[in-house]
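Query structure, 199 C-alpha cells:
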C-alpha cells in the first residue's frame, strides 16, 4: 500500500489548512444548493393517494402527521420481492431519532410498493420503528419520484442534511431563505430527543 509521506508537524499543519479551506468551500456550496432548493417551484397535488399502514388506510396528508413538511423516502421494495433493497436498508439503519426533525415541523416516512404485510414482516426483522407505508394499490411511486441516483443518498444521513431537503430548511437565521420563512438563532432549538415536547 502506497501510504502518504511522514512529514513534520509544520508541513502537516499547512496541508491540513489547505484541505480545510476546500472543506469549508464545499460546505458553502452545499448551503447555496440548499438555498436554491428552497426556491424550487411547487406542484399542486390534487390526486387522492391512499396508502396502507400498520393502522389501516392513510391519505398523503395523514403521512404529514399534522406537521407542515414531509420527507418521504421511496424505499425500493417491490410486490414481487420478499426483502427490501440492501442499499435502502443500509440507509434506514443510519436514520437518527425523528424527534429532531419533528422539532422543525417535519415528518419522515418510508413508502414502498410491496404490500403492507411484507413491509411489516421486514420492518420487524430489521427492528425499525420509522413510519412505513405501502403504495401497493396506488400509483404514487410512479407519479412522484425525486431521483438522486448514482450515490445520491450518500449525502443524507443527519438531521441537518435531511432538513436541507425540506421546503423550510433548517430554519436558522444564517440561512438564505425566501422572505417570511421561519427562522431562529442556530443551536437554540437543539435538544436531546426526549426533551422535545412532542417526542
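Result returned for the query:
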Amino acid at each position: 500500500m502506497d501510504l502518504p509521506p511522514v512529514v513534520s508537524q509544520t508541513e502537516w499543519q499547512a496541508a491540513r489548512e489547505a484541505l480545510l479551506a476546500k472543506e469549508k468551500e464545499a460546505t458553502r456550496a452545499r448551503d447555496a444548493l440548499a438555498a436554491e432548493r428552497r426556491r424550487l417551484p411547487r406542484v399542486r397535488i390534487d390526486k387522492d393517494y391512499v396508502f396502507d399502514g400498520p393502522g389501516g388506510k392513510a391519505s398523503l396528508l395523514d403521512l404529514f402527521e399534522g406537521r407542515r413538511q414531509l420527507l418521504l423516502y421511496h424505499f425500493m421494495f417491490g410486490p414481487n420481492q420478499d426483502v427490501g433493497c440492501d442499499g435502502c436498508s443500509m440507509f434506514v439503519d443510519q436514520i437518527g431519532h425523528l424527534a429532531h426533525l419533528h422539532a422543525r415541523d417535519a415528518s419522515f416516512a418510508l413508502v414502498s410498493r410491496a404490500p403492507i404485510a411484507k413491509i411489516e414482516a421486514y420492518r420487524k426483522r430489521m427492528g425499525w420503528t420509522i413510519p412505513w407505508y405501502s403504495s401497493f394499490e396506488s400509483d404514487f411511486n410512479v407519479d412522484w419520484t425525486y431521483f438522486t441516483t448514482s450515490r445520491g443518498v450518500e449525502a443524507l444521513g443527519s438531521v441537518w442534511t435531511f432538513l436541507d431537503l425540506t421546503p423550510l430548511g433548517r430554519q436558522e437565521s444564517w440561512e438564505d431563505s425566501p422572505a417570511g420563512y421561519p427562522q431562529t438563532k442556530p443551536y437554540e432549538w437543539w435538544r436531546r430527543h426526549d426533551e422535545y415536547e412532542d417526542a
